[in-house]
UniProtKB/TrEMBL annotation:
BP GO annotations: phosphorelay signal transduction system
PROSITE patterns with a match to the protein in the record: HTH_ARAC_FAMILY_2, RESPONSE_REGULATORY
Protein known as: Response regulator
Domain HTH araC/xylS-type, residue spans: 409-507
PTM sites of type 4-aspartylphosphate: D54
Xref: Gene3D superfamilies: 3.40.50.2300, Homeodomain-like (1.10.10.60)
SUPFAM superfamilies according to UniProt: CheY-like (SSF52172), Homeodomain-like (SSF46689)
Native source organism of the sequence: Ornithinibacillus hominis
Entry-linked InterPro entries: CdaR_GGDEF, CheY-like_superfamily, Homeodomain-like_sf, HTH_AraC, Sig_transdc_resp-reg_receiver, Tscrpt_reg_AraC-type_HTH
Keywords, in A-Z order: DNA-binding, Phosphoprotein, Transcription, Transcription regulation
Length: 511
């Protein structure tokens, strides 16, 4: 509802103006003030949309009151009312921002026209402001999606439809700037907590927040050179942890990677943050990767990188026994070389995370691997690693069991719908997108019969239904279900049903 304030030191003028306006604008909420001082006080409380301000009043005049009110309420519109038709008054009123003016005495039609015009302007401005606010909200949501997409491309080397260079241009981000990655372990999350963490990171300077996945939230942080790296990281870690209370903070932990000179090297810092978050049951709520002990790191990296190159192919081919053997050999190698258990567990987590990431790329849902505690010896490390690996393996098996079941159902549906046609394994393969050999093998394993036998059954069942119509001949039915030779159809029918087609039709028709 529109708020209007009439300011005039003469009661009769206020009453007359109010009567005219109430009759023409019944929805208008009208208040009054008898001088400039009262107008200022009421405007602070009411925040009126429009003020009809008399210029000549004792004490604070209308121009002075208008100037004061506009400092507190710049969106308020003013129509100046005066008996003084002088250029100086009008020029000052317009300079201060008055929308229009009325001369005393004014005709009712003039008052209605000018007030109506200004009220219309207010409505249009409010609508434009609302649309602008909506656009800001939409932009912020779009920006959040773009930001998440960019983090995914930078940290996981995904190739998306929109190139990361375009995304950085939209977000106005410079590639050549120092960054580091913080990985926030959030055991339980919600949209509210996720939003709070984003707000805290954005308060601390420019950060790119990724998607919450597998209990972990990656954040790319731009370096603030006014403070040290360590000070910046610790301050941000404490801000993030402040969104939880003491009870909820259990299980929260932040791994912090090293600083790198450019945004396209953020992935290395992310890998380090993953390693740093491994020992999340240790004292404190955050850990720097640089604090982790690294013995003979070059030698270990060489062996580890060799395995990392092989793992994606092993996972895609489903060679889980090879994966298990390679991981056990790697643990044995660390043990022989005297690496600490903390270090070995951290590096094994990198391997498990890589397997998890490959599965996610294959659209296989799986829980991100995470050790429940720091292992006490290498025997325990092998056992716990094997358990986590088995969880990943189970996700892979369940996915493909479901995929095979869906594929068999697709094949059955295709054969049923096209049984009257000249159908072949090659035709089914083109439709389903699989090789004919694989289809034949899968169908036999899952159904217990080959696809030709299933096709024949479909045709015979369809023929049985058609035989319920006495007007259809056996020859017509044979052709309709996919047999061009009626004699061959009769032979196949009798072999399966144990009576001839004519005998079967006579029986069901009661002949």
């Amino acid at each position: 509802m529109m708020q209007l304030l009439i300011v005039d030191d003469e009661q009769i003028e206020r009453d007359g103006m109010k009567a005219i306006l109430q009759k023409s604008f019944p929805s208008l909420l009208i208040n009054e003030a008898r001088n400039g001082k009262m107008a200022i006080e009421k405007a602070k409380v009411l925040k009126p949309n429009l003020i009809l301000m008399d210029i000549k009043m004792p004490g604070i005049n209308g121009l002075e009151a208008m100037e004061t009110i506009m400092q507190d309420s710049p969106d308020t519109k003013f129509i100046m009312v005066t008996a003084y038709d002088t250029f100086d008054y009008m020029r000052k009123a317009i300079t201060l921002g008055a929308s229009d003016y009325l001369l005393k005495p004014s005709k009712a039609v003039d008052i209605i026209e000018i007030v109506g015009k200004v009220l219309k302007e207010i409505v249009q401005e409010q609508k434009a402001k609302a649309e602008s606010e909506l656009q800001k909200i939409v932009f912020q949501k779009t920006r959040s999606i773009i930001e998440t997409d960019l983090v995914t491309q930078l940290l996981f080397e995904h190739v998306h439809e929109v190139n990361r260079t375009i995304l950085m241009d939209i977000l106005d981000i410079d590639m050549e700037q120092e960054v580091f990655v913080m990985n926030v372990l959030m055991p339980e999350s919600s949209e509210q907590l996720y939003t709070l963490v984003k707000e805290k990171t954005q308060e601390s300077g420019y950060c790119l927040v990724g998607a919450w996945s597998g209990n972990q939230l990656p954040i790319i942080v731009c370096r603030n050179h006014r403070v040290s790296f360590r000070s910046q990281a610790i301050a941000l870690a404490r801000k993030i942890l402040s969104v939880t209370n003491q009870k909820e903070e259990m299980g929260w932990f932040i791994g912090i990677g090293n600083v790198y000179p450019a945004l396209d090297q953020a992935r290395q810092s992310y890998q380090e943050s993953l390693v740093a978050v491994t020992d999340y049951l240790s004292p404190g709520k955050y850990r720097f990767y640089a604090e982790i002990e690294t013995i003979e790191e070059a030698l270990f990296d060489q062996r580890l990188n060799q395995l990392k190159k092989q793992l994606p192919d092993y996972v895609k081919l489903g060679q889980w026994e090879e994966i298990r053997n390679e991981i056990i050999h790697l643990i044995h190698f660390f043990e022989q070389k005297g690496a600490s258990l903390v270090y070995s567990q951290q590096r094994m987590l990198e391997v498990l995370w890589l397997i998890s990431r490959v599965l996610q790329d294959l659209r296989i849902e799986t829980k991100s691997p995470l050790y429940a505690f720091q292992t006490m010896d290498y025997r325990q490390l092998r056992t716990e690693t094997n358990l986590l690996l088995e969880q990943l393996h189970t996700s892979h098996v369940q996915h493909y069991h479901q995929l095979e079941a869906d594929t068999v159902q697709q094949i059955k549906q295709y054969i049923t719908e096209h049984s009257h046609e000249e159908i072949s394994l090659e035709a089914i393969g083109r439709e389903i997108g699989l090789s004919p050999i694989y289809i034949s093998k899968l169908f036999k394993e899952k159904m217990g019969i080959n696809y030709i036998d299933f096709l024949t059954e479909c045709r015979i069942e369809k023929a049985k239904k058609l035989m319920q119509d006495p007007k259809r001949s056996i020859k017509e039915i044979a052709i309709e279900v996919g047999y061009h030779e009626p004699n061959y159809f009769s032979k196949v029918f009798k072999k399966i049903v144990h009576v001839s087609p004519k005998e079967y039709q006579n029986a069901i028709l009661g002949k």
